[in-house]
Amino acid sequence: LSKMADLEQKITFEPPKFVTFKPKPEEQTREVTINNTFNKAVMFKMKTTRPGSFKMKPVYFSLQPNQTKSIKLHYSGCPANVKPNLKDRFSVIMAIVPKDAPADWDVEKIWEDQKMQVELADSVKRKVLRIHYEGYEEPADLPDKSDKKSKKKKKGASHDSVEDKKVGLPHAVATPHGAGSVVQPIVYIVYQGLPPREDVEVR
Question: In CATH, which of 2.20.25.90, 2.60.40.10, 3.30.420.40, 2.60.120.200 is domain 3-140?
Fold first, then answer.
């Protein structure tokens, strides 16, 4: 398995898919527990679609092998008579700690360090935690984008072929050169009809 596949299976979340809040004008706090069962240290970065309404603490952190950490998720509340955005979500960005990380390394600085970006890209993974508002349907997993793409059917071009009718004269005809003389057959082409007048080029 690749590092990315390993991270996907070895980092567990509780709750695993979504966090529930009440769509009311009151402050609320929930927790998500993250467990690292991987055999390497992993660094994390928390993000959200609405930073003005949701706060995460801590935002940057790391977990050693077999270490568990609880992240506090704070919601400032939903204004009265306002429907919540059912697409709200948290994103947990994670990656294996780079081998070249300094001894006194800081998680936030490593995430922003351009020199570390190449090594981080080899194992970076994103986990989406959707936000479920109480009283609304629980968020479902998004379908694969490839499922949305419909295959275009190729239209076969059908061309009606028009066969020219050939009419030949008898091979032996009476001519001034003598009876029974054989001449080359004359072929007449009978057209199926002229095109409409508007299709004829006027010169």
Answer: 2.60.40.10
